[in-house]
Structure formats: C-alpha cells, structure tokens
C-alpha cells in the first residue's frame, strides 16, 4: 500500500511537471489560453451566444435572455446596456436587442491586442463581426487563477460600449491608456462607419476617459482608411502634457501624428510605408493567401543627442525594416522640404518569411523584438548590430501555439505576446475544442541570453578578460 501511494505521488508530480512544460514555449511562459472567450459582466460569466448554432446560420433561438453560468436571479433578463443610475451622455454604438447588434456571439470574439499596466492586462477584441460585448477589456492579474479567465469590460460595460472597435492599446509612463477607436463595425460585405475614427485616452488612476480626438478629414484620405488604423505608439519625455502619438495607416499607407499639447494632427507619407509585393504570399495556420498591408508598427529608441528618438517601422507585408527621426515626424512643415524623402532610412532585411505585425524596442539592452506571422515566431535583433538574417535570433516558434502573433509589447523587462490564429478564423474555421488564443510573457534578459541579440562586449570588457 505504501509503495502504491508513493507511485501515485510520483505520477502526479511527473504529470504536473509535464503540464508545466507544455505551457512553456521556448523561454516564454504561457500566461493564459482560451478555446473561446468568455466575459465577466458584473459578476456574471457570459458563456453562450443569443442565437443558435454557428453552423446553422446563427438562427434565432431566443430573443429575451442572455445566458450566464452563475445567474441565480432575474439579472439574466436585464438589458446589459442599461446605464448606471448616475450615467449620462450615452454614446453606445451597438444595439443588443437586434440581431445586427447581437450582444454576444462567442465564436466571433477574437482577441487582438495585449498590454500590461500594473496588475491589469488589457485585451482588445475589435468588432470585425457581430456579437462583441466589449472591444476594450481587462484581466486582473492578482485575482486570476484560471488558465482561461473571463474578460471584464473596461472600465465598465457602460463606458466600454462607447467604443466601437479598438485593435491595440498602449500605456504611457504618466498612467494613461492610449488607443485608436476606428469607429468602424468591420463586418465583411457590410461595413458601417458608426463614429469618426479617433484617438481615445483613459486615465488609469481613476479609469475615466480624458480625451477623444476625432481625426481630421486630411488625416483620413479614403473611406477604407479606418480599416488600417491598427496600432498606436506614444512618444513622451518628462512633460506629460507634451506627448505625441504615432498612428499607422496600413490601408492607405501613412503615419498620422497627434500632438497632445497642440491638440492637432497631421499626416506623413513615404514610399517606405507601402507593402512589398514580393512578400505578399503567406501561408499561416494552413491557409494560403495574399495581403497588401502597409506600415503596421512603430517602435522608439531612447532619445538621441538631438533630443529626438529613432522611430523604427515596417510594413506588415515586408521583410525589411526602416527608420526615421521623430524630429521629422513631429515637424508638420517638413513635408514641403525638397529633401523630405531622403530623411527616411533603409535599415536592413530580417530574412525570408519574416513578415511581422508588432515590434518593440527594449531600452536597457537595445534589443528589438518582432512578432513574426510569416514564421509563427517571436524573434529579436540587437539594434547595435547590422540588421541581416544572421543577426536575427528565433526565440519561440510553433505553428499552433504561436500562430499569428497579433501583438507584442515590452513592459519594463517583460515581453508580452498575443497569438490568435486569425487567418484560420478569417478563411476557414476555428476548432473550438482546442486552444486558439494564447498570451505569453518572457523576461528580456532570459530570452536573449546566449543569442546574437545579447549585447556585444565592449573593448574594455574584452581587455579585462583576455
């Protein structure tokens, strides 16, 4: 009997060890994973969509109720868009009482962005289909014990419903959360522009919206431009009131610059912001297709001698990296300079199949991390070295668990990554019996140790050790 107990104990330890091992990818730790998303609405866990089977054309099953896991009161019948008693100025953009504005269709909820600030992890779910309860959400890292926690609308459902569709967020050192609300209900074959695209900022100290800046018509040159407002980068030094935001436009190939101090915006264009047709062929999650997305991500170095930063950027459909000084981006008049186009630089090539969504610069190490959709991977490059394939290190790669890394961000010394298998959702069908969405985290120093991304030794270090 004693040996049987010992045997069972050993098996349990080995099983737990094996489980922990499967929840690592390279040196990254899996933080969360979902087969499908659920939501926590005021303590009620939203599990089922209002309509019938996805395979049965979502035929209407029941109009009056939203189904909750732990609903033991009449709250299952309430209108979840009903505001708090003291709420005013409702700017809700979706109607939960109609099929077109279905409150929740679980299959349609695909997470896109991830950002950590303090003990909160912000998760965005852009409205590319019907049935998205909230486009901006969060997870409380202190309270979350589940592998697949429910998302909570941020700051609450009522305020979250004033946002139409957000792809990615970024927090600044002044405790503010920045994003672009595209204002677009991006339904295939039936898109609807519900609000003017705008920069939105929340104060994370009191969870209040403090800015909504609608873009000017000169910022948005075409009707389809809002589909390409995929990311935002915040540039700030010591003065919190003197911040700049750089918004990429991957559809009509531009960078929109916003000045908080002047509450004004302008647009830059350049050939380097366009896609490279030789990199347009993709094969991701078993799906083959072509995309034509231009500039997708901007990341900033520390300030240089002139007080400005180097802005590294790349189109999604490209394997090259480019750069420009933020002195150029901040100068709206420079666009008329005859030498304007020479102010942008070609940096180098990452390698075959290295198409990347987001990338982020880590100031202490000078390392840039890339979320590579073309190779189902996260890679790195030490910006003190030439950019070429031999100076790129693959840190994690997996065709299933790192399929379409849609967001990557560095917070302090941590790299956070979201992978969401988006092409399979768009071109085929997700298997809801398996995990489809993942969030990973890794320590910068651990990730780059022993790779070509680790900082090269200085001459003095070399002399001391030789």
UniProtKB/TrEMBL annotation:
The keyword Signal applies. Residues 65-97 are annotated as: Disordered. Its main location: secreted. Pfam families: MRJP. The keyword Secreted applies. Residues 68-81 have a biased composition (Basic and acidic residues). It is found in: Secreted. Residues 83-97 have a biased composition (Polar residues). It comes from the Eukaryota. Residues 1-20 form the signal peptide. Keywords: Secreted, Signal. One of its GO terms (cellular component) is extracellular region. Belongs to the major royal jelly protein family. This is L-dopachrome tautomerase yellow-f-like. The gene is LOC113398173.
């Amino acid at each position: 009997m004693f040996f049987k107990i010992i045997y069972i104990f050993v098996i349990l330890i080995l099983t737990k060890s094996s489980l922990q091992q499967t929840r690592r990818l390279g040196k990254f730790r899996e933080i969360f994973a979902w087969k499908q998303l659920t939501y926590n609405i005021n303590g009620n866990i939203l599990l089922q969509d209002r309509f019938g089977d996805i395979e049965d054309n979502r035929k209407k099953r029941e109009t009056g109720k939203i189904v909750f896991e732990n609903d033991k009161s009449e709250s299952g019948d309430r209108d979840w868009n009903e505001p708090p008693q003291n709420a005013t100025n409702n700017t809700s953009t979706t109607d939960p009482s109609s099929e077109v504005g279905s409150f929740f269709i679980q299959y349609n909820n695909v997470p896109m962005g991830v950002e950590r600030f303090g003990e909160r992890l912000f998760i965005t779910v852009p409205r590319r289909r019907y049935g998205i309860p909230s486009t901006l959400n969060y997870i409380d890292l202190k309270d979350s014990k589940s592998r697949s926690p429910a998302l909570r609308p941020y700051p609450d459902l009522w305020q979250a419903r004033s946002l139409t569709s957000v792809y990615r967020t970024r927090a600044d050192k002044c405790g503010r959360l920045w994003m672009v609300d595209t204002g677009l209900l991006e339904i295939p074959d039936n898109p609807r522009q519900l609000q003017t695209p705008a920069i939105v900022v929340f104060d994370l100290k009191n969870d209040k919206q403090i800015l909504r800046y609608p873009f000017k018509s000169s910022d948005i040159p075409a009707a389809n431009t809002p589909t390409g407002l995929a990311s935002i980068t915040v540039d700030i030094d010591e003065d919190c009131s003197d911040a700049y935001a750089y918004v990429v436009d991957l559809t009509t190939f531009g960078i929109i610059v916003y000045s908080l101090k002047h509450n004004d915006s302008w647009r830059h264009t350049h050939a380097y912001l366009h896609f490279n047709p030789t990199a347009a062929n993709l094969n991701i999650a078993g799906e083959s297709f072509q995309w034509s997305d231009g500039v997708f991500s901007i990341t900033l170095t520390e300030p240089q001698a002139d007080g400005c930063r180097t802005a590294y950027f790349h189109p999604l459909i490209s394997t090259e990296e480019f750069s420009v000084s933020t002195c150029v981006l901040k100068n709206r008049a420079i666009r008329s300079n005859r030498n304007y186009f020479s102010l942008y630089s070609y940096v180098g090539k990452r390698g075959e199949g290295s198409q990347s969504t987001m990338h982020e610069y880590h100031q202490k190490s000078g390392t840039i991390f890339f979320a590579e959709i073309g190779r189902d991977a996260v890679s790195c490059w030490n910006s003190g070295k030439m950019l070429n394939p031999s100076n790129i290190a693959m840190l994690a790669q997996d065709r299933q668990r790192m399929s379409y890394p849609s967001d990557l961000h560095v917070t302090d010394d941590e790299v956070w990554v979201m992978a969401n298998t988006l092409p399979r959702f768009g071109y085929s069908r997700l298997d809801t019996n398996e995990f489809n969405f993942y969030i990973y985290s890794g320590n910068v120093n651990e990730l780059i140790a022993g790779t070509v991304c680790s900082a090269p030794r200085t001459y003095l270090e070399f002399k001391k050790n030789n």
